[in-house]
Amino acid sequence: MTSGEGPFTSLADVDDELRDQLRGIARGLAMAAGELIVTERPDRLGVAATKSSDTDVVTIMDQRSEAFLHDRIAELRPNDGVLGEEGAAKEGTSGLTWIVDPIDGTVNYLYSHPFYAVSVAVVVGDVTTEDGWETVAAAVSAPVLGETYSAAVGAGASVESRDRVRELQIVEPASLDLALIGTGFGYASKKRAAQAEVVASLLPKVRDIRRGGSAALDLCFVAAGRLDGYYESGINPWDRAAGQLIAAEAGAIVSGGSTPKPNKELTVAAAGNIHDALCACVVTKPR
Ligand code: IPD
Ligand code: CA
Predict the structure, then answer these.
(1) What is the CA(1)–ligand 2 centre distance, in A?
(2) What was the pLDDT predicted at 245?
(3) Could you identify the atom of ligand 1 that is nearest to the CA of residue 218?
(4) What is the pLDDT of residue 170?
(5) Which residue's CA is the nearest one to ligand 1's atom 16?
(6) Ramachandran angles phi, psi of 99, nearest 5°
(7) Taking a C-beta distance cutoff of 8 angstroms, is the pair 98, 122 a contact?
(8) What is the Å distance from ligand 2's center to 82 Cα?
(9) pTM to 2 decimals?
(10) C-alpha to C-alpha distance for 74 and 81, rounded to whole angstroms
(11) Could you give phi then psi for residue 221, rounded to 5 degrees?
């Protein structure tokens, strides 16, 4: 066991006290940034920049939320690293890195559609590799829904809403054909065409499909039983680092489909009894 300053190289190095403290920090950060993006949203919110395509947008509030998270983390945990969707990058010395998505569901945010969230995760390991890190603690705050999800590894997951805290434990659906499945799509047209083929073949085999527009919240909805499963290809560490722990701590199996850990190729989160059947429908490239 090491002190609160590290160095940490694996989950085993993080004691329960620190793990719970980190969960509290993640919760506070996600809630504060969630409040910021709602209360300080300009009346006429425009697109500040685009990324992989003209529809992959960044607003001034994505940038402000990320700057806020970056600065607060530097104050609270000066030795930890930071990796953010909009470019925040700081190498730490502790072995812990905060992976943040300042607004997950930016297109929803642009349209004032309420399904968006701030995602904050603290991970241990090498964030320059796809699967060389594991989430220690995390929170996802959806300010318009009034919900904040959080989890710490081995300590369960919960959601708080209007001062009420509920521990999360998923309930298995009867079968895949009675399951409600969430998914999402990338921004590049070629990628979407491939994703459309997968979803078209899955749709006749399930109760229905939902496309919420925030991968972080989709994973939390699996934890909360609002979806029986979720899959998506092409998502990044900031989209999933928090939600994947929250889903797993609520009892979901979270994988990369054909690999134990989620990765850029595929993320699957589902109740144990339908996980493999869902993977069989959505894995396109066995690794
Ligand atoms: C996106 C959302 C969306 C998912 C996309 C992500 P962003 O993140 O999570 O649900 O389908 O793959 O890129 O751009 O809103 O932060
Ligand atoms: Ca995102």
Answers:
(1) 33
(2) 98
(3) 10
(4) 96
(5) 104
(6) -105, 115
(7) yes
(8) 15
(9) 0.96
(10) 9
(11) -70, -30
Closest atom of ligand 1 to CA, residue 213 = 10
Structure token digits, residue 100:
């943040």
At 93, which amino acid appears? Answer: T
Query: Which residues contact ligand 1 via a Cβ below 6 A?
Result: 85, 101, 104-107, 184-186, 213-215, 232, 234-235, 239
Nearest CA residue ID for atom 2, ligand 1: 214
* pLDDT of res. 287: 53
Ligand 1 atom nearest 183 alpha carbon: 11
For 103-171, give the DSSP string: EESHHHHHTT-S--EEEEEEEEE-TTSSSSEEEEEEEEEETTTTEEEEEETTTEEEEEETTEEEE----
Predicted pLDDT at 3:
58
Q: Which of 62, 104, 115, 118 to mutate to test the pocket of ligand 1 (most atoms within 8 A of CB)?
A: 104
Could you say which ligand is closest to the alpha carbon of residue 109?
A: 1
User: Which residues of the chain, if any, have pLDDT below 70?
Assistant: 1-4, 285-287
156-205 per-position pLDDT tens digit: 999 999 989 999 999 999 999 999 999 999 999 999 999 999 999 999 99
pLDDT, residue 184, reads 98
Query: Can you give the pLDDT at residue 5?
Result: 79
What does the pLDDT look like over 59-74, one tens digit per residue? 899 999 999 999 999 9
Residues 144, 68, 132: CA angle, nearest 5 degrees? 95
